[in-house]
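Researcher: Quick sanity check before group meeting.
Model: Go ahead. Protein one:
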Amino acid sequence: MKDLLFLIIALALVGIFVQLRFSIAVSIFLIAVITSFFKDLNIIRIFQLMLQTLSHLDTINMILVIIIVTYLGELLKTSGLLSDITEDFKKILSPKAFLPIFSLVVGLLPMPGGALVSAPMVDEGAMDVEINSDEKALLNFWFRHVWEPISPLYPEFLLGVSILGTTIFKIISIQWPISVGMFFSGIIFIVPFIKNGKKQKNRTDLYTAFDILKNLSPIILIFAFLMIFKKYPSFVSMLFGLVYLIILRKVPFKTLKLSFKYKKILEYTFLIYAIFFLREIVTSTNFAQSIFIELQSLKTPTYLILFILPFSIGFLAGISSASIGIAYPLLMPLLKVGNSLIPSNILIAYFGVWTALLFTPMHLCLSLSVDYFKTEFKRVYRLMLKPFLFLLTITLSWALFLKFKP
């Protein structure tokens, strides 16, 4: 029972730290240290894990990605490209269409730190409409995450397919209501935040289309490189996009220097490190396995185990790959019988992963969106409640259908 009790305390501490206005990076780091002491790790072992975290290729890659993407976001603004993109879209669409599209497009590919690419676009595009910072943060975060439950471009999706030993299309047939629910709940509850937005009366011509393509080309190039060079660390693709932007806009050295925000980059770097350090603690101490055993010993209903275990790992780690990679093997007897999947159980388990990602401050996209738009988690959570309940209704309805279908 002690691990389950500690999990409850850890989740409460996250809320307390955020309420005390600790930075999210400091909050996560403190949770990691507290967890390591709870699991009886000595100081030497904690320092070993801290160094081990820093030596992992995925940690290094993510830190480099965040540095490059943060710089790229600043250059998009200072070079004037962001304004040009916004003006192009204003000619053909209303803000109620193009603001969500910015996040939807960036979310098509698993671009680490992608929230920092779409956020400046959303911010710039919202200049002439009535929408506050809380609403912009939610719009940027929500629409960016429509694709992940059904997209084989996401490594987390493929990880689930691999662990379950099934096909891509089978998992899509189970998880599609989450993507559909995300999209329509965003349309119903989030898009109406955008007020007084009108499309400019301009006729779309070939010049406008070419201009849009040219201005979006740095982002398109990043997408293309991510697709072509899948075996290389993602920071390489980001770097190509950054260099291309500098050449395309002929950015002078003075602008390059002013656009490098040292303080913001250091804050985001520490945030990445804290998240990966917590993940290292959770995995190295078999914390999730202990939770699973304790839930079983309490004779917890199957559907609660299916939800709680992925949720708890996802909430603490803030990364869906960690939640799927740790929880699914432990839950395998509940997800699969022989060679036959249990679709309703898989959906509940994945929705545990998804709910954690929507609400945990450890989720990089959420924390970056909250930070970028200078808002607070509790205000974004308040706005998220209605779209989430809509999503919950759709997901549970599909789970019941899967369970009782003939």
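Researcher: Fine. The other one?
Model: Protein two, sequence then structure:
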Amino acid sequence: MTGVDDAMDDAMDDAMDDAMDDGDRELEERLRAAAERLDPVPAGLFEEAMLAYALRTLDAELAELTFDSWEELSATRVRGGGRARLLSFAAGEVVVELEVTGRRLVGRVSGGTPAEIVVQRRDGGMPLRADELGRFTTGELAPGPLRLRVSPGQGGPVVTTWILI
């Protein structure tokens, strides 16, 4: 797992913990114990499920995070809030440059050609289209983890790693 994935998981866990009170936690633990006792998960099923989950994007190449301004200027994240976060992802010939300002994305796909883009969230996706210069933008997005699935005019689809906005 990458640091971004860990941060995403921690943020999701914190959000769930904030929404639950002590009674909810106790009930969840009792239900979990009953399920484990009465209907245990078959040996090997968890591993098979994780492998199947990994295959869901087998048709897309994973774009590597090649630049993150938060890593370059980590001290300014504490003192200089409000600065845009700049990210760059690369997979083969495809480069996705992304600016995160608040909860809005502005980006560009290399090659200056139109591309189909989907902002993927755990609860669904929002389709976008890059213009003839490869540029795209979103409106205000809900906070939380997301990634981009980019299908350029030529070549196969590319998926970025998860980021947290």
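Researcher: One line on it for the slide.
Model: The mean pLDDT is 82.
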